[in-house]
Amino acid sequence: MKTLDLRSDTVTQPTNEMRQAMANAIVGDDVYGDDPTVIELETQAAARLGKEAALFVPSGTFGNQLAILTHCQRGDEVIVGDDSHIVWHEAGAAAVIGGVQLRTLESDQGRLNPQAIKAKIRHGIDIHEPKTGLICLENAHSNGRVIPLQNMQDIWAIAQAQQVPVHLDGARVFNAATHLGVNAKEITQYCDTVMCCLSKGLAAPVGSILAGPADFIARARKLRKMLGGGLRQVGVLAAPGLIALNTMTMRLGEDHAHAQQLALALSQMDGIDIDLASVQINMVWFRFRHEIDVAALMSAFAAAHIKVNPPENGWMRLVTHWQIESTDLVRISAVLRQFAG
């Protein structure tokens, strides 16, 4: 029986086309700047993201933290949502690597209030205050919601007026673009720099992209080396990245449709709470209305050859990707139906 893995879209296996591309990749030494496959990936990624230049980095966390390090001086503060990936899932790296403090704002399901951001910006004029070095946004948010373009535009206008740069954690920016029916650059026009992951729903085995102005990327390239991210014959990883960028971005709507199909099935179960309107990309969040035996739930999923993460603070997340087909959703729903009554 085929094993289904819905723990995240980070579990995606590379496609056969990607594996072949890795084997056939023309490589050089990327630290010397002569790996042609990496150069091609960075050039195409910059164009897709509407930026002057791009840099291949090992991971999304690496890309976000490299952006913070490059934008900020030690002792700066970064304004960011309190439920963001940078706050929750990057191991306190901003303090350790960038030497900055995170000034968090309460978000409305990932959406930040522009006026609240404006009120928090500090320019370090008073000797007691740090300077706001950066504003970080996230779209699509890791809660599965897509942030409206108007919200990003409003924050961008404030940041421009206050001369504070904006970085977008766009790990799933192509999911956001798919949901909104726009090109990714229509989202990234409202940020100075953007990180996007190739190794989540786009199925590349490794890697993310950091994109922005050419002078910023030049500084980031040196800092990437300092952090140990100067890889060598990395064209073997850039080759599947090109397929991720050019092929896998075009099929994300299938993953979204499967998530909506699964969410609809769950909404018809009496013992499950789910907000169908919140299923905007490839993530399905729900909770049981009554107490359940979590160990028994996990055992039932394991017996059905399905990998999931257990509920956290009452909420459970299932994530679709290219290896989850429409026919697989019946097996997933059947396990949950046992516990929904």
From TrEMBL:
Species of provenance: Chitinibacter bivalviorum
Domain (Aromatic amino acid beta-eliminating lyase/threonine aldolase) ranges: 5-286
Protein name: Low-specificity L-threonine aldolase
GO terms classed as biological process: glycine biosynthetic process; L-threonine catabolic process
A cellular component term, taken from the record's GO annotations: cytosol
Cofactor dependency: pyridoxal 5'-phosphate
Pfam families, sorted: Beta_elim_lyase
An MF annotation (GO) of this entry: L-allo-threonine aldolase activity
CDD domains in UniProt: TA_like
EC number(s) recorded for this UniProt protein: 4.1.2.48
Residues modified as N6-(pyridoxal phosphate)lysine: K200
Keywords carried by this UniProt record: Lyase, Pyridoxal phosphate
InterPro entries documented for this protein: ArAA_b-elim_lyase/Thr_aldolase, Low_specificity_L-TA-like, PyrdxlP-dep_Trfase, PyrdxlP-dep_Trfase_major, PyrdxlP-dep_Trfase_small
Family indicated by similarity: Belongs to the threonine aldolase family.
Subunit structure as annotated in this protein's UniProt entry: Homotetramer.
Enzyme class, first EC level, given as a word: lyase
